[in-house]
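User: What would this chain look like folded?
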Amino acid sequence: MTTVDASIARPTRTERDFGGEIEVPASVLYGAQTQRAAEAFTVSDLRLPRQYIARLGALKRAAARVNQELGLISPEIADAVIRAAGEVADGRLDEHFVVDLFQTGSGTNTNMNANEVIANRANQLLGHPLGGKYPVHPNDHVNKGQSSNDTTPTTIHLAAQVAITHRLLPALARLLDALRAKAVELDDVVKTGRTHLQDAVPIRLGQEFAGYAGQIERGIARIRPAQDGLAEVALGGTAIGTGINTHPEFASRVCALLSDEFGVALRETDSHFQAQSTLDAAVHASGALKTVAVSLLKIANDIRWMNSGPRAGLREIELPTLSMGSSIMPGKTNPILAEAVCQVAAKVIGNDTTIILGGQHGSFEINVMMPVVAYSLLESIDLLAGVSRVFADGCVDGVTATAAGPAGVESGLMMATALSPRIGHDRAAAVAARARELDRTVRDVARLETDLTEDELDQLLDARRLTGR
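Assistant: Here's the prediction, encoded as structure tokens.
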């Protein structure tokens, strides 16, 4: 029955569920349970992201295919569900996903939102009215063989796997290539190394960039084990891990379809009780992402320091000028992409704290903070992927060396370190102290206060030699 709700002055339809009758906007594809959730959860304007909904749609599509293969639903119903779930996966029905991010901790509300949207759309495709739950039922057909308690963690793992495989790792590989290329390009530039922000022995600028490349290379390696953890999914455990009301082959077949579709590893867990009561794999993955964020923060801050100036700072490197740096100071430029990296790192580190807290809320047979963990994990992956590519393209590729780094090497007091093997640590320290007092170079003072010859000083104080291989 269609009526008009006077308070909103738009047509509604009456639906019935476990709670009785409720009015639902007549044109929407969701149903009674989604409407109740939308009314109950008015916490924020945040929703589970598009990629999560897309992967949930893909899971429902694969489930329908498998349930048909197993003879559990008719070909006609399966075909309609597959088509409708495909529209969800493709983003054509996003406007009908209305549940707040902050909802029941199992993600049941979003799972039912998907079930109702897919069922209503399938019925529409079959020529039946919305809200009738006939011939396609949201629970009996779309959700067949599943529970929110296993589909939600499975969707988290699937979405994270796809985002890491096809977005984050290629972006990190792009940044790694840029850093390696810059290390080769700048390998002949000798400058002063620094420890504790104080002058140290010489280093090549290329060596510093090789170090940055090494961080990213190892960050990629740290993500690989996290991917293996995400490959193991809870699907098949249904309500609490016992697998009640699901076919024993259902989960493995769905995983095989999804693995083939997205080019990622996905397998049914051999320990359903841990898979449904914990988010340990997501916590582990977030830890790897946080480590990458910390690496990026170090790299970006080094680049900011080396670019400081241009007259009163280090100015050892120049960065591409991408935009105006100040609304009041004419001609000012800033290391804006490095600053963007720092902000992303801060957000990812904060998301990791959220995910850790979420992981702690596994009580008996279920975790009850899955939606916020899903949101935070997928956001971290996307932010790291986006900023890594932008940083490589807009900053690292365009780094050039200035003459300031090499010019400061000869005057560095820690050049005295190179004298230690010949004159001993204490005498070398005295030379450094005297050079600092007189505002002279180590070479000048060593020439006056040691018996080292000019040839010996040239050999010992060869800055390029001091940087090693």
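DSSP finds 18 helices and eleven strands in the chain. If you want, I can go into more detail on any region.
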